[in-house]
């Protein structure tokens, strides 16, 4: 899932783009929300000093971890999971189900997710609650744009399938969703779908691989 700086840049470009292309489908098919494409603002943090983590033998920066997860919102709704059985219980579907693997400290996942695995050991599980500043940030009105409806085209060259909830691609590849449709205009929200939301993750640490010594 694009970071805030990427969205700012895309917004500037979007303002001068003549059209965006309509993509059928809802937000459910998006990639795992635990993954971030922006490392600049994903500095990981930990309440345990690195020297103490080393003594405890827990996960540290540089370790490659494999984690199963269940992500829910405050109302209990599942927004993503790597576990098929949990998905079935929640009537949630995704193309594949597999643990996420990443190197701790590289900024390839949201910073709260990165921080949460630090200090854990293989076989452990925990539940963490991430505020928006630890996940996808607050929703920003700057990333909601309104364009003339005639500038929205679908695959068949028309704009007759413009509906609230549909996904759009900007010319720069940013993904947004239609929030308001009138006879003349369309409002598109390019904020991450989970922006402004508090996220709860149930984590199962499956595997830890220490970096090879030089």
Overall description:
The protein has 2 domains: 4-28 and 141-189, no CATH class; 31-137 and 194-209, Chitinase A, domain 3 (Roll), CATH 3.10.50.40. The chain is 14% helix and 28% strand. It has helices spanning 4-14, 50-56, 84-89, 111-117; strands at residues 20-23, 64-72, 78-81, 100-103, 125-130, 144-148, 152-153, 167-169, 175-181, 185-189, 199-209.
In short:
Strands 6-10-9-8-1-7 form a six-stranded mixed β-sheet, with no helix packed on it. The longest helix has 11 residues, at 4-14.
Would you count the extended β strands for me? Answer: 11
Structural class comes to alpha+beta
CATH topology of the largest domain: Chitinase A, domain 3
How is the main sheet built? 6 strands, mixed
H/E series: HEHEEHEHEEEEEEE
Report the CATH architecture of the largest domain: Roll
Helix share, percent = 10-25%
Q: If helices are DSSP runs of H or I spanning 4 or more residues, what is the number of helices? A: 4
Distance between the termini: 33 Å
Topology:
Layout: H1 4-14, E1 20-23, H2 50-56, E2 64-72, E3 78-81, H3 84-89, E4 100-103, H4 111-117, E5 125-130, E6 144-148, E7 152-153, E8 167-169, E9 175-181, E10 185-189, E11 199-209
Parallel strand pairs: 1-7
Antiparallel strand pairs: 1-8, 2-3, 2-4, 2-11, 5-11, 6-10, 8-9, 9-10
